[in-house]
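Troubleshooting log. The previous structure file for this entry was overwritten by mistake, so regenerating from the original sequence record. Sequence copied from the archived sheet and checked twice against the printout by T.R.
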Amino acid sequence: IDGRRIEIKQAAPRDQAGGFASRGGGSFGASAEQNRIFIAKVAPELEGETLRQHFASFGEVEDFYMPSFRGAGGSLGSHRGIAFLTFKDAAAVEEVLKQ
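Regenerated output below.
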């Protein structure tokens, strides 16, 4: 994206993937597992909206979350270089993983 490489994997529950879980802290259902991807190695200068728009070309995006570092006083700082994206349809995940 924008000339930079990122790493994409199908997200899985924490007990199956060694650490991934939904942003609410709980596990997510089977359909969400199939529709959700984990994006790593996101360049610091790449904005979340750019990433979301890129993946929207594969299918309708239901949810997008890019965690940020907390700055002084609890304010949000730069993103952590990872993101989670949930598509409405699992076929979009298959298309993304083919790329």
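The beta strands are 7-10, 36-40, 61-65, 68-70, 76-79, 83-87. Archived copy saved in two places this time.
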